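Structure tokens please, single chain.
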Amino acid sequence: MNEVWAVLKAILDPLFIIFILLLASTVIFWKNCKKKSDALIMVLGVILVYGTGIAPVSNYLCYHLEKDYIHHQSAGLKNGPDALVVLGNGTKEIKSIQETFSSDFGTLRLVHAATVYHQAGARYFVCAGKGEGDVSEAQAMAKLAESLGVPKDKIRIEAKSENTAENALEVKKILGDKKMHIGLVTSAFHMKRSEEEFKKYFDHVTPLPAHYLYASPAKNFVICYMPQAAELTKTSTVVRELIAQLWYRIR
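Here you go.
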């Protein structure tokens, strides 16, 4: 029964419905058009939607991006770093209740950083990132950190940086000492670029990935090959990060 429900949910996924409608439209157009080359763009569209929306493709891309940190068991620090630095990932503002929350990824990062703090300790707990709202990413994370038991006097807020390169630069301005041991907390897909930037300013940077996009293949073979919105989101995240990595190398 659970398998049937899982397949039903996959069938009702918006991306799967879009894919079926696009596929049906392409077949009808192909049959009715006199010049088959006219249908090429629609065929390519079907292939793109299918390829970017299935788990084997998204998982392969995620693994390629995160593999260095999947096998990097860095969460259990024997000695606490001088500073834990957690990078923001946007905020969500709900005006009706006048509250601003850290984004889903930002929350995962902050919770992991707080967990590491309670396990290993640190002299400083740095929340970094400006964001686009009235309340910065750093402020939203700092508020959550306090609620998770991180002492207020340990928290440092860096709310000026607007990208990963600026994160590293502005944190360096706050901490100052190049020889400080930094425990860097961000998403695994974002870690490589972040680590490269922070190593420009600090001699000792330990990556502490908060979460992974990659997941071991699901047991349900059928669902794995059905386009799903969640898999498209993962693929999109990876592609944006790969473009960002390329830009950081050529800028």
